[in-house]
Amino acid sequence: xxxxxxxxxxxxxxxxxxxxxxxxxxxxxxxxxxxxxxxxxxxxxxxxxxxxxxxxxxxxxxxxxxxxxxxxxxxxxxxxxxxxxxxxxxxxxxxxxxxxxxxxxxxxxxxxxxxxxxxxxxxxxxxxxxxxxxxxxxxxxxxxxxxxxxxxxxxxxxxxxxxxxxxxxxxxxxxxxxxxxxxxxxxxxxxxxxxxxxxxxxxxxxxxxxxxxxxxxxxxxxxxxxxxxxxxxxxxxxxxxxxxxxxxxxxxxxxxxxxxxxxxxxxxxxxxxxxxxxxxxxxxxxxxxxxxxxxxxxxxxxxxxxxxxxxxxxxxxxxxxxxxxxxxxxxxxxxxxxxxxxxxxxxxxxxxxxxxxxxxxxxxxxxxxxxxxxxxxxxxxxxxxxxxxxxxxxxxxxxxxxxxxxxxxxxxxxxxxxxxxxxxxxxxxxxxxxxxxxxxxxxxxxxxxxxxxxxxxxxxxxxxxxxxxxxxxxxxxxxxxxxxxxxxxxxxxxxxxxxxxxxxxxxxxxxxxxxxxxxxxxxxxxxxxxxxxxxxxxxxxxxxxxxxxxxxxxxxxxxxxxxxx
Length: 565
Prior knowledge:
Layout: H1 46-59, H2 63-69, H3 83-96, E1 100-103, H4 117-135, H5 138-152, E2 154-162, E3 167-173, E4 178-180, E5 194-201, E6 212-222, E7 234-236, E8 239-244, E9 246-256, E10 275-276, E11 288-289, E12 297-301, H6 319-340, E13 344-349, E14 373-381, H7 385-405, H8 410-413, H9 424-430, H10 432-462, E15 477-480, H11 488-500, H12 506-515, H13 523-535, H14 540-558
Helix pairs in contact: 1-2, 3-5, 6-7, 11-12, 12-13
């Protein structure tokens, strides 16, 4: 009977878009993303790629243009003023905080006189990771990857050892290039054993190059050392006491689209038609043994996995509100045009006649225009200012509704006058939705960055980088800074009282000051400097200053200043 299917999946929140389910089987419209009709794409990736394309259009103010391509001609006049991008950038800023710091638990105790070897090893690993992050521009790459995660729902990091630079290189990939091979009964939190990074290279008629597909594959499998020893064991630097029979194989090849038959998906491309790429030393990248027992690809999802491997966009819950906001902005723009250049009706006016055609010339209204009206003539002006005011109020209402549903209170968007906040307690209460949003987004990423830093350490060990010793991998964490301004003076008073009373250690207090935004680069070094100053002999200047301090207080009190202590 031609009935459409009712689809419920990770991207069903876009089903109201005609372009997302334009066919009976739920496949997207060809105008949405023509490449999703390629035969090599897995069927379960088509809707995901179409959703990425649609979200990217909203981010770049092209949603109206995209809707016009799918048959909605009126959408070409749609007004888009960057509200989706503003929401994404605001959420990204709160997610990352002002700073991102790599910490290794136990490193803060390395400065003690009786520090354990574990604490000293943690401090050394922390210093090595921070040096690597600075050389590899980790904060800059995180900005690029995390914006994709917030906007599209997913981000992808790729790690690789670079012998020429002597360090691990970090690259970010568009999630549209990421195709994991997932088992039907696999847990969404499990890491796949086979991952493809693939994209289509367009035809270049000037150079005579046909359209082709490039696929980079990482796959875990048994170690192969030759026909006489089909399976072998290997001791990796991070687990020298535990032999392993697993390694990671890398393949990098291209296929011409003319060589692919219909129905051959990405995981089934024929090896006899492949053109494998080669390294600088001439080694073909055909199941190259990387001598590691993990896949150096880290997939970051924007939301906590709940039966789905892929995450959900930050804009998912407010997409229809953004459409309504754009339509209201469009109506407001039309109403402002009639308010600025009103429609005028004249009765009894004498219009000038065109001598060539004999017809009256159209009347133009401009400053200084004078109309001659006959007896009983009149001029009526259509006033649309009232509708314009209503539309503007409607815009603010929808914008506020979208911010509430996105859990971005007005104070986080900078649209609240500080004088309108009755108290600091009310201010903290208003930030409750934002706190829960940031906590959930950071929770979804916490173990992924622990995994990334673990891979960084192991790839340095596998590449035999200097100063990266053999041994177990230490658990490093990426700590995000505060997402809202903090009361630094209150935290300082709390640290002074807590350390002075012996409630917590000096190292813990310094880490609290770091989280509050104080310019302390290394907690261990700061603790050592404080200890040195406390043990240093008191100078004559310090004695003189301490003696003169009460006199200064007395003079201030006598002059009407603060009371004497």
